[in-house]
């Protein structure tokens, strides 16, 4: 027998992991109404609990965003673990890219934009965004370096430079998925993967152009 799907607003006593349930509720509220318009009462109602009970787990909306970032960081760690022992690096990379930009709900991309926008004026959000971005870039650089030692990446490639370019491309995909009405995930992720493949094979030289004075400044 196929089990029935979980309700979007579970009863307060139905799910033991209230922490995760509150984060799910906060995510839905932030996507639907934005961070500023969402209140703690909104999140409590979405999570199916009283505001007083909610405050036992999270003291503020900012604390929920910190929790969401920590959860996303753990998910990213699982993605990176998929490369351990893989014999087809590019295929694994492509599979994870399609997961994030084509298969996961579009609401994830909308939430990213909401956090990035708030980061321009809120120090807590700015710190969360900066730390998360730095962590991901460093992880990718390490991943590309390890792949390089295993022969999956051209020996002349700078793993750090490629990691930064991939971060830039990924951010662009998140923005387009969130707001572009004509976003074609399969096509645009495919374009991006071809570009990343060219970078990793050394077909694109990312070294500064020495003919330009600013390259040596």
Relevant terms:
single chain, 217 residues, mainly alpha, Tetracycline Repressor, domain 2, 2 domains, 9 helices, elongated, disordered N terminus
SSE layout:
Blueprint: H1 18-33, H2 40-47, H3 51-55, H4 61-81, H5 89-103, H6 106-119, H7 123-149, H8 159-179, H9 185-200
Describe this structure in words.
It contains 9 helices and no strands. With 217 residues, it is mainly alpha-helical. The protein starts with 17 loop residues before the first helix and ends in a 17-residue tail after the last helix. Residues 1-16 have low confidence and may be disordered.
Instruction: Tell me the name of the CATH homologous superfamily of the largest domain.
Output: Tetracycline Repressor, domain 2
What is the mean predicted local confidence, pLDDT?
A: 88
Uncertain spans: 1-16
The number of E-state strands comes to: 0
Number of helical regions: 9
Task: Spell the H/E element sequence.
Answer: HHHHHHHHH
CATH topology value of the largest domain: Tetracycline Repressor, domain 2
Structural class: mainly alpha
CATH architecture call of the largest domain: Orthogonal Bundle
Percent of residues in β-strands: under 5%
Largest sheet: none
- Tally of distinct domains: 2
Shape annotation: elongated
Task: Kindly provide the radius of gyration, computed on alpha-carbon positions and rounded to a whole number of angstroms.
Answer: 20 Å
CATH class of the largest domain equals Mainly Alpha
How far is the N terminus from the C terminus?
67 Å
């Amino acid at each position: 027998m196929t089990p029935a799907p979980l309700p979007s607003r579970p009863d307060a006593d139905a799910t033991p992991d209230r922490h995760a349930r509150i984060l799910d509720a906060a995510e839905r509220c932030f996507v639907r109404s934005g961070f500023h318009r969402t209140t703690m009462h909104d999140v409590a109602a979405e999570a199916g609990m009283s505001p007083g009970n909610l405050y036992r787990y999270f003291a503020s909306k900012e604390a929920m965003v910190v929790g969401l970032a920590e959860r996303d960081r753990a998910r990213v760690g699982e993605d990176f673990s998929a490369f351990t022992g893989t014999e087809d690096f590019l295929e694994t990379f492509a599979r994870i890219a399609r997961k994030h930009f084509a298969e996961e709900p579009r609401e994830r991309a909308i939430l990213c934009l909401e956090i990035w926008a708030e980061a321009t004026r809120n120090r807590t959000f700015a710190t969360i965004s900066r730390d998360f971005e730095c962590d991901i870039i460093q992880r990718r650089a390490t991943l590309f370096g390890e792949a390089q030692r295993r022969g999956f990446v051209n020996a002349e490639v700078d793993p750090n430079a490629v990691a930064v370019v991939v971060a830039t491309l990924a951010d662009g995909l998140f923005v387009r998925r969130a707001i572009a009405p004509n976003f074609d995930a399969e096509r645009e992720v495919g374009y991006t993967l071809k570009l990343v493949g060219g970078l990793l094979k050394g077909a694109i030289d990312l070294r500064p152009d020495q003919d330009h004075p600013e390259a040596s400044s």
